[in-house]
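Long-time lurker, first post.

We've been arguing in lab meeting about whether NAP would sit comfortably in this protein at all. Half the group thinks yes, half thinks no, and nobody has a model to point at. So I'm putting the question to the forum: if I give you the sequence and the SMILES, can you give me back a predicted structure of the complex? Inputs are below. Any interpretation is welcome too.
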Amino acid sequence: MDRVCIIGAGWSGLAASQVLHERGIPFDCYEAGSEVGGNWRYLNDNGMSSGYRSLHINTSKKLSEYRCYPMPEEYPPFPSVFQMSEYLDDLVDHFGFRDKIAFRTEVTHVEAAEEGGWTVTSRHRDTGVETTRHYGSVMVANGHHWKPRDPEPAFPGVETFTGTQIHSHYYKTPEEYAGKRVLVLGFGNSAADIAVETSGVAERTFLTTRRGGYVFPKFMFGKPADDMISPFLTMVMPREQQRWIMALLLKLSIGSVQDFGLPKPEHKLFNSHPTVSETLLPKLGHGDIGVKPNISHFDGGSVHFVDGSVEEIDAVIYASGYQVSFPFLDESVIAPTDNDVSLFHRVVDPNHDGLYFIGLFQPLGATTVLAEAQSHWVADLVQGKAALPSVEAMAKEIKGYKDSLAKRYVTSKRHTMQVDHYPYLAELRGARKKGAKLARKALKARNKAALKTPLSSDYQPEEVSIRIDAHPDVVWDLISDVTRMGDWSPECWKCSWRDETRGVGAKFTGHNKRGWMRWVTSNTVEAWERGKAFSFHTTTNGVRWGYRLEQDGDGTVLTERWDVSGQSEAQRKRTASFANMMLGGYEGHTAELRAGMTATLERVKAAAEAVERPAAVRELVALEQAA
Ligand SMILES: Cc1cc2nc3c(=O)[nH]c(=O)nc-3n(C[C@H](O)[C@H](O)[C@H](O)COP(=O)(O)OP(=O)(O)OC[C@H]3O[C@@H](n4cnc5c(N)ncnc54)[C@H](O)[C@@H]3O)c2cc1C
Ligand SMILES: NC(=O)c1ccc[n+]([C@@H]2O[C@H](COP(=O)([O-])OP(=O)(O)OC[C@H]3O[C@@H](n4cnc5c(N)ncnc54)[C@H](OP(=O)(O)O)[C@@H]3O)[C@@H](O)[C@H]2O)c1
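Top reply:
Settle the argument with this. Predicted structure of the protein with NAP, as tokens:
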């Protein structure tokens, strides 16, 4: 099986590595940093992690733990970035695939190879040594939350701003904001966390939101709120009803966001990626964070907002999201403009065989589990247990997905690859099931095609000949003794006549043994002519098989023949299926057959010549004596 290349050892790359490792698929995983974890390694030396010191997962432990490896019982419902790195290290060591990860090794170029598959070039970050290897397929798991997206277009007058500006990607701890007037832009999870944290040390913190949004608590009724997401509810209940129930629960438990000074959201619940925070609303309620609409322009140290208000600001943190980017892939392969990518079920590039993307989605749920499920599907594809539909069918699915996104979500670069946890898991299960069906269909078609080859009009039975230095009668005596068949062909393990009759019409049974297989064949003799021919029809597989003998001086030319032209449809299918499964197709089957026949003839030759030579030697001795 062709080797697979995995790019990245964050949540997604680790899911892929674990699945391939478990399923015995050879792979190499390349990781730019010196440790696993991606965003879930604080101060990761890959230089790409967006994780800050106080980060905790916002999808609960129960929802987020890999299905193959639960989180430790003593972990809290929302573990920290440090606990997550420890968990990921344990996962790698538990399954034992650390040696398959090339650390400090960055993939710099991936291109389609002429002979099929992919050529992957990597560079060791310390030594600078470049390596190029060929792979059958590539699983891209480089993450999509590492390349900051600054506000586009930049706000007017931003170049005049006298304070500091960073993207939330670079935010690690709040100390540098102590005593300052801080403005955090955005209403995603980064903005919520960072505004809460800086408000603890800053003189004043403001949060700007251009369209408002809902805030989901981490806990409801003393339990992680996402424990309430049930597969049944999210898959069976119409979204309007789900929305109604969740709105009611939020109203009863925390009230509306307007109660905390936030604007009324411009969209419905679930139509935007959720902002999850236990602390944002109380902080707003305490007045520790001020709410602002979008920025209108900058003017020196003043920031003007679209409602005409102005604030003096010392530091701006743009929590304006991330860009999807694959620096190692040519733009002609995939060019994600505004985070828009076109992948079949968010995984498969329909236009490039063997190019898969893991974790390239924005889930209402947990990345880990979904990446794990995606990887199982890819493993099916790599192992040939599943196949893909036509490019047109894949394009149709992609269009349907994009249409549904456009209908449901607020138009934003952050809503180009949303998936719902349980429905997406069900979708992947469906893709695997359909893929398996397609693979079976393709195998059947291959079987059919494979057996057409020997049965075409120019079909010739397979024949192999050998010259034996022995009289045809001697050779015939050997090969027509079916009890000795196992001597010539080890495949025929034990053969015996059905009764005492010999000759045309007589029957014998062959017990064949081939590794783990053993079966019984029934043979009817069709040619029985001393010194000339012995052949028969194997009724179980429809093959006509046997020997033709021609005298050649003092010796014999022995020809073995194998003819499948009389096989029934069912017998042909069985042969094709066997040939495809065990021997890589009919050509492999023929090659093995010819090698087997050659070996058989050589054994008969050795046996026949061993019988004949002593007689010849005796004759010579007699002649010499007579002389
Ligand atoms: C602050 C923050 C908090 C988040 N919290 C959650 C959460 O609670 N729950 C959730 O489901 N999602 C969350 N997300 C979404 C996030 O996508 C996932 O947490 C997670 O990081 C995805 O894992 P990943 O492996 O896809 O990407 P990453 O974590 O980014 O890992 C990618 C890995 O690939 C490596 N890499 C990249 N390019 C190359 C290359 N060319 N060669 C070799 N290696 C390379 C990187 O070094 C990195 O280790 C959060 C995101 C952020 C930014
Ligand atoms: N575990 C955690 O607690 C945690 C913490 C942080 C992040 N995360 C995850 O990390 C991922 C990234 O989150 P994120 O918050 O960094 O990014 P994000 O979800 O993409 O949010 C970006 C925010 O910036 C706003 N924005 C973008 N461009 C803007 C502009 N020009 N003007 C005004 N506003 C603009 C967006 O508004 P629009 O919606 O209007 O476009 C949105 O509110 C998400 O999956 C998130 O769940 C998780």
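For your lab meeting: The chain has three domains: 4-146+324-439, 158-217+254-318, 462-626. Residues 62 and 70 are 8 Å apart (CA to CA). Whichever side wins, do check it experimentally.
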